[in-house]
Write a structure and sequence with these properties.
mainly beta, Pnp Oxidase, Chain A, 7-stranded antiparallel β-sheet, two-stranded antiparallel sheet, 12% helix, globular, binds flavin mononucleotide
Length: 199
Amino acid sequence: MHFYEPSQGHRLPHDPFNAIVGPRPIGWIASQDAQGVLNLAPYSFFNAFNYTPPIVGFASLGRKDTVRNIEATGEFVWNLVTRDLAEAMNTSCAAVGPEVDEFALAGLATAASRVVRVPRVAASPVSFECRVTQIIQLQTAQGQSVETWLTLGEVVGVHIDERLLVDGVYDTAAARPVLRGGGPADYFELGERFQMRRP
Ligand SMILES: Cc1cc2nc3c(=O)[nH]c(=O)nc-3n(C[C@H](O)[C@H](O)[C@H](O)COP(=O)(O)O)c2cc1C
C-alpha cells in the first residue's frame, strides 16, 4: 500500500485526493450581490446533507464571490450541470472580478426563480432555490482555521423539467449529469446502474 500523511506530502505526481473522492456531483451555484450583480460558479466540493428539509452544501477554497454574495443576500440557486451544459459550466469558473456576470460570460440565459430573488440557469433541467442556513469556516484537527468555507442552504424550491419525470419518478440517468473526477481535467458521465435493497 502507498501510505502518506497529507501534511508531509503525497509523493505522487498528482494529489490523488480528488480522484479518490470522485466522481463528485457539481454544485453550479448562482448568486447575486447586494446590488443585484449576478454570479455563477461551479463547486465540486458539493453534496446533499439532509432529506427533510433538504439541505445542500459546498465548500469554497478561499472566500470566493459566491460565499460573499450568499452572506450578503442569504440566497443561492443550485443548478444541475448536464452534458450539454458542461462547456458553459467550465466557462463560468473563470477567475473574473465580482462585477462580471458569468451567466453572460458563458452565454447562458436566466430564468426567474419562484421563492428567492436569485435567478436560475434557464437551460438547466433541474434547479434548487436555496436559503442559506450556515456558513462554517473549516478548521484542522489542531483547531487552526482553514481558509475554506462550507456554505449550507435549505432547498426551498425545486424545478424539474417534466421530461425527466417518468411516471412521476425522477430519471437520474436521462439528465446526463456531469460528474467531476481528479486532476486538472477529468469528468465522468454515469455508468451502469445496479440496485440493492437495505437489509
Ligand atoms: C468542475 C469545477 C469544480 C470546482 N469546484 C470548486 C470547489 O469545490 N471549491 C472551490 O473553491 N472552487 C471550485 N472550483 C473553482 C471555482 O469555480 C472558481 O474559483 C470560480 O471562479 C469561483 O467563482 P466565484 O468567485 O464567482 O464564486 C471549481 C471549478 C470547476 C471547473
